[in-house]
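Give me the fold.
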Amino acid sequence: MLKYNIAFIRSGDRLLMLNRGKAPLLGLWNGVGGKLEPGETPLESVMREIEEETGLRLETEAVRFGGTVTWEVDGRDAGGMYAFIGEVPGDALPALPMETAEGILAWKPIDWVIDAENYGVVQHVQHFLPAMLAGEPCAEHRCFFREGKLLTVERRPLQEVGC
């Protein structure tokens, strides 16, 4: 079982992104999420994290599992996260951008988030998010890092319930 989750909340052609206010990933845009608590399923955990970090209370039907993202850092397994895509109406969180305990929440255009030349977004997001947003079959997205730099991302079939 993985220790973390992440959610990318979509409203039309925008994604709700968090500019992290602390390490790791200080100053980079990413989805919202965090650690699974003891006894939580990945879905329960991501629903809790979405509410804690954004104030949004989504119905479980508005959130779908997109796959997993795992890391190999300097030749060693370094864990990973369950990834989810959420959908909200266009008028959700109209008072953004907003500073929170975790960083700055803001709506960002999807094309901006997944642009390979955008170095303000966590570097592996552009490699797994397009497939998840497109509703492609669930997969493990295995990210290989060496000395802090992303080398490659491999997409592997995933046989999880709900894929």
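Strands lie at 4-11, 14-20, 29-30, 32-35, 63-73, 76-87, 98-99, 103-109, 139-146, 149-157.
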